[in-house]
């Protein structure tokens, strides 16, 4: 017997979401409000990092002080664009991966859906998101349960009524099915995108590891790991593809955060990708993120759980 997702019911959820200042049906509309996880909380201390970085599969132990400095610079970039920044609360359990606030939930037009993590060390994160959303007045539409797995890094808006959902080691068909049940309002179509084995279940590969929308008609893609049907779907929708070079994939060149159409934030150290985006008229802003991004294989989209984007 298949598990049913937990669903919340509320009168006029769209109005409640609007009142709470939440709603996303795009990856490229102007970013107005975002949830972040401060490394002062997620990393806790250098001692915690030293004891746990291998457990979480980081490439190396982040330097706590440098991580805080990188994060503060990232926040300055976002607030400089007029983005309202909220911070994750709701847990006393430090976990290095919690800094990647995108993954434990999905935000749609009517509120939030709590995920269920494919990585054992992250299983407490959705409840922390739920507590934070409750404190912010964000409606919770439901949560993934049972054998379902769903991580937000695999869930990407293609247009204002189509969600592409990567199916791999972090998100499975049952999680995708349950998401479809929660969103069964006729306003959202789900498109499943198979993900490759890559380096296996112990590695992190989300759909947003290889695909970052930059505008409604422009996307940054690492084609060698992209399944052919999805790549052809993008082209059939007249979405132009900018390819990330092989030598900048490992430095997270494929993971960029659109803060408005054709304006994005990306990691410094990917000059070829930056030049290719700028050649397409994209306004690119960079930040240093070796400690908070590269060592944990999570770029700027991973650091952010968008709560509200302007309708394009």
Tell me briefly what this model is:
The chain is of the alpha/beta class and 312 residues long.
How would you describe the overall organization of this protein?
- The structure is a single chain.
- With 312 residues, the chain is an alpha/beta fold.
- Helix content is 25%, strand content 23%.
- It is built from nine helices and 16 strands.
- The chain has helices spanning 13-19, 39-42, 46-52, 64-80, 125-136, 173-182, 228-236, 271-278, 300-303; strands at 6-7, 31-36, 84-87, 105-107, 112-114, 140-143, 155-159, 162-167, 189-194, 211-215, 218-221, 240-243, 257-260, 263-267, 283-287, 305-309.
- It has a four-stranded mixed sheet with strand order 1-6-5-4, with helices on both faces. Strands 3-2-16 form a three-stranded mixed sheet.
- A hairpin with a 2-residue loop joins strand 13 and strand 14.
- The longest helix is centred in the N-terminal third of the chain and has 17 residues, at 64-80.
- The protein is globular, with a radius of gyration of 18 Å.
- It starts with 5 loop residues before the first strand and ends with a strand.
- The relative contact order is 0.19.
Q: How are the SSEs ordered, and which strands pair?
A:
Layout: E1 6-7, H1 13-19, E2 31-36, H2 39-42, H3 46-52, H4 64-80, E3 84-87, E4 105-107, E5 112-114, H5 125-136, E6 140-143, E7 155-159, E8 162-167, H6 173-182, E9 189-194, E10 211-215, E11 218-221, H7 228-236, E12 240-243, E13 257-260, E14 263-267, H8 271-278, E15 283-287, H9 300-303, E16 305-309
Parallel strand pairs: 2-3, 5-6, 8-9, 11-12, 14-15
Antiparallel strand pairs: 1-6, 2-16, 4-5, 7-8, 10-11, 13-14
């Amino acid at each position: 017997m298949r598990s049913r997702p937990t669903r919340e019911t509320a009168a006029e959820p769209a109005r409640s979401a609007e009142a709470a200042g939440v709603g996303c049906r795009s990856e490229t509309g102007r970013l107005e409000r975002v949830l972040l996880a401060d490394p002062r909380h997620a990393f806790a201390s250098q001692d915690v990092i030293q004891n746990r970085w291998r457990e979480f599969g980081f490439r190396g132990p982040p330097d706590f002080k440098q991580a805080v400095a990188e994060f503060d610079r990232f926040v300055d970039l976002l607030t400089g664009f007029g983005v309202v920044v909220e911070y994750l609360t709701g847990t006393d359990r430090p976990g290095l991966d919690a800094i990647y606030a995108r993954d434990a939930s999905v935000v749609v037009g009517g509120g939030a859906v709590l995920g269920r993590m494919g990585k054992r060390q992250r299983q407490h994160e959705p409840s922390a998101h739920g507590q934070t959303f409750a404190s912010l007045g964000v409606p919770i539409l439901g949560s993934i349960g049972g054998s379902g797995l769903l991580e937000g890094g695999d869930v990407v808006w293609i247009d204002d009524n189509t969600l592409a959902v990567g199916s791999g080691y972090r998100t499975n068909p049952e999680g995708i099915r349950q998401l479809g049940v929660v969103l069964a309002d006729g306003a959202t179509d789900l498109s499943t995108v198979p993900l490759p084995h890559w380096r296996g279940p112990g590695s992190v590969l989300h759909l947003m590891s290889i695909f970052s929308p930059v505008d409604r008609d422009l996307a940054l893609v690492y084609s060698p790991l992209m399944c052919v049907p999805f790549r052809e779907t993008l082209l059939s929708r007249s979405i132009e593809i900018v390819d990330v070079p092989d030598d900048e994939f490992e430095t997270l060149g494929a993971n960029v955060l659109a803060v408005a159409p054709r304006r994005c934030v990306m990691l410094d150290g990917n000059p070829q990708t930056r030049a290719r985006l700028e050649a397409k008229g994209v306004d690119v802003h960079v930040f240093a993120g070796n400690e908070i991004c590269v060592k944990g294989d999570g770029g700027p989209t991973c650091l952010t759980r968008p709560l509200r984007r302007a309708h394009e």
